[in-house]
C-alpha cells in the first residue's frame, strides 16, 4: 500500500508558510480531499512524489508538458542557456527566434510580445483592446478562465470554480461591473448583450476550446458567429489559447477551426514548463503597445533567455511530421476506451475531447456549458480521483479541468490507465 507520510509532513509545513500550503489554489486538492502529494521529480509521462510513489501524469503541469517531464532536449537547452547567464534585462536572439516561430505558426499573429504567464498575456491583451477601441466593457464566458487579473475574476473557471468562489473579494465593483459573463456556446446571448451595450464593448474573450470548466468544445458556428458579431459591433475578438495553443494543433484552435481572432493569448506549451506567455495579433493593434505606441506593458523577466530556450526547444520538437496526428490518435483511443469501460461497468459519464485534451464528466447529459458541467456529481468525481491516485494515475484534482496526454504517453501507459479506471469504476458501482 503506497505511503505518503513525507508529503503530509511537507504539506503541513507548507501550510504554516503559504496560504493553503500552496502557491496556486488548485494544487490544494480542496475539491477532492486528501493530502496533496509533493512531487520530487518527473520523467516522461510519470511524476514521483517525495515518498517514491510513481504516477502516470495527466495534469502535465496543467498543460505545458506536452513532451512529458524532463525531456532531454529541453533539459539540455535550459542547462546550456543558464550557463550563459539567466537574465540580462536586454533583448536576446532567442526571443526573436521564438517570436518568429509564433508568428509563423499561429494564423492571427502578425506581431507578438512575450510575457511571463498566461495571466500577464490576457491582462495585457485586455488593456490593448480597451486602449485601441476606447471602450471599457469586456465579454467573457461563464466558466472561462483567463488568469487572475481583476477583470476576469467574474464567473471564472479553473480554481475559482473549483473552490466555489463566486468572484473574488478585492475586485472593486467598478471593475467587475465592466465584465459581462455569458453562457458558453450561446451566440444569441452574445448578440443580445452586444445590442444592449452597443458601442461599449472593447472585446470578447473566449477560450476557443474551453478547458477551465472541464473540456467544452465550441459548437458548430459558435466561433464563426463571434467573429461575425465582433465585425458588426466593432469590438475585438480575443482567443485565449493559453491551453489550446500548440495543444490542439500546431497553429492552435484558430488553425483547427479556421477562425481568425484580432488578438491571441498564449502560454503553457510555448514555455515548455518555464514561465513564458505571449499576446499578439494584428500589427495595427500591437503597434500601439509601448514603446512603439502609448499603451503600456512591461516585465523584468519578459522573454527570459532560459525560459525562452525551454520554449524554443519544445516547439521545435513538436513541429515534426506526425506529432499532432499521433496526439490525436492517443487522445481518441483513450476517450473511446474510457467510454467503453464506463459502458461495461454501467457508470454514467460524458467525455468531451479535442485532440489530446479531454475531460471525463461524472454526469449523463451533454456538457456544452458551465451550467451542464456543474450538473456533474462532484462526490463521485472525488472518489474517482482518489481511486485512481491509489492506482498510480494522477488526474487534475478537479472536475473542472482537462486531462492532458503527452507525446511521452505510450500505448501501454494508456492501456494501463484504462485498466485502472475500470477497476476503480468496478469498485464504485452502486455508490
Ligand atoms: P497562468 O497565469 O496560470 O500562466 O495562465 C492563466 C490562464 C489563462 N488562460 C487559460 C485558458 C488558462 O487555462 C490559464 C491557467 N490555467 C490554470 C488551469 N486550467 C492554471 C493552473 C493554476 O491556476 O494553478
Average pLDDT metric: 96
Number of domains: 2
**Number of separate strands:** 14
Instruction: Measure the end-to-end span.
Output: 23 Å
Strand order of the largest sheet: 4-10-9-8-7-5-6
The CATH class of the largest domain, by name, is Alpha Beta
**Radius of gyration using CA atoms only:** 21 Å
CATH superfamily of the largest domain: Type I PLP-dependent aspartate aminotransferase-like (Major domain)
Each distinct ligand: ligand KE4
CATH topology of the largest domain: Aspartate Aminotransferase, domain 2
The profile of the biggest β sheet is: 7 strands, mixed
Count of separate DSSP helical elements: 15
Describe the structure.
It is built from 15 helices and 14 strands. The two termini are 23 Å apart. The protein is an alpha/beta fold and 431 residues long. It has a seven-stranded mixed beta sheet, sandwiched between helices. A four-stranded mixed beta sheet has the order 1-2-3-13. It folds into two domains: 173 residues, Aspartate Aminotransferase, domain 1 (Alpha-Beta Complex); 247 residues, 3-Layer(aba) Sandwich (Aspartate Aminotransferase, domain 2), CATH 3.40.640.10. Helix 2 packs antiparallel against helix 11. 53% of the residues are buried. The chain is 39% helix and 14% strand. The chain is globular and about 60 Å long. Ligand KE4 binds next to helix 4 and helix 5.
Amino acid at each position: 500500500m503506497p505511503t505518503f507520510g513525507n508529503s503530509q509532513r511537507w504539506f503541513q509545513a507548507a501550510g504554516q508558510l503559504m496560504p493553503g500550503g500552496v502557491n496556486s489554489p488548485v494544487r490544494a486538492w480542496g475539491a477532492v480531499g486528501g493530502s496533496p502529494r509533493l512531487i520530487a521529480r518527473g520523467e516522461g509521462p510519470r511524476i514521483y512524489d517525495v515518498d517514491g510513489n510513481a504516477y502516470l501524469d495527466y495534469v502535465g503541469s496543467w498543460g505545458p508538458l506536452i513532451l512529458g517531464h524532463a525531456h532531454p532536449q529541453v533539459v539540455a537547452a535550459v542547462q546550456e542557456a543558464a550557463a550563459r547567464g539567466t537574465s540580462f534585462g536586454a533583448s536576446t536572439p532567442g526571443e526573436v527566434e521564438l517570436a518568429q516561430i509564433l508568428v509563423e505558426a499561429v494564423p492571427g499573429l502578425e506581431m507578438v510580445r512575450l510575457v511571463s504567464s498566461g495571466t500577464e498575456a490576457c491582462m495585457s491583451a485586455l488593456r490593448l483592446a480597451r486602449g485601441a477601441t476606447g471602450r471599457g466593457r469586456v465579454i467573457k464566458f461563464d466558466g472561462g478562465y483567463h488568469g487572475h487579473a481583476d477583470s476576469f475574476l467574474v464567473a471564472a473557471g479553473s480554481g475559482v470554480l473549483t473552490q466555489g468562489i463566486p468572484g473574488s473579494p478585492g475586485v472593486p465593483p467598478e471593475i467587475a461591473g465592466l465584465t459581462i459573463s455569458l453562457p458558453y456556446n450561446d451566440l444569441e446571448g452574445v448578440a443580445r448583450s452586444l445590442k444592449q451595450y452597443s458601442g461599449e464593448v472593447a472585446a470578447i474573450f473566449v477560450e476557443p476550446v474551453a478547458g477551465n470548466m472541464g473540456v467544452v468544445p465550441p459548437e458548430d458556428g459558435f466561433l464563426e458567429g463571434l467573429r461575425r458579431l465582433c465585425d458588426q459591433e466593432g469590438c475585438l475578438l480575443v482567443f485565449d489559447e493559453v491551453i489550446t495553443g500548440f495543444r490542439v494543433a500546431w497553429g492552435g484552435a484558430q488553425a483547427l477551426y479556421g477562425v481568425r481572432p484580432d488578438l491571441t493569448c498564449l502560454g503553457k506549451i510555448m514555455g515548455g514548463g518555464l514561465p513564458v506567455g505571449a499576446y499578439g495579433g494584428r500589427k495595427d493593434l500591437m503597434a500601439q503597445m509601448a514603446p512603439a505606441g502609448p499603451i503600456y506593458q512591461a516585465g523584468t523577466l519578459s522573454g527570459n533567455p532560459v525560459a525562452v530556450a525551454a520554449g524554443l526547444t519544445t516547439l521545435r520538437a513538436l513541429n515534426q511530421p506526425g506529432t499532432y496526428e499521433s496526439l490525436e490518435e492517443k487522445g481518441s483511443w483513450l476517450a473511446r476506451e474510457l467510454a467503453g469501460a464506463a459502458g461495461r461497468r454501467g457508470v454514467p459519464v460524458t467525455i468531451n475531447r479535442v485532440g489530446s485534451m479531454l475531460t471525463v464528466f461524472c454526469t449523463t447529459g451533454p456538457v456544452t456549458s458551465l451550467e451542464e458541467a456543474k450538473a456533474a456529481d462532484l462526490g463521485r468525481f472525488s472518489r474517482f480521483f482518489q481511486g485512481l491516485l491509489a492506482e498510480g494515475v494522477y488526474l487534475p484534482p478537479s472536475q473542472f479541468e482537462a486531462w492532458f496526454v503527452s507525446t511521452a504517453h505510450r500505448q501501454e501507459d494508456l492501456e494501463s490507465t484504462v485498466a485502472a479506471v475500470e477497476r476503480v469504476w468496478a469498485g464504485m458501482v452502486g455508490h
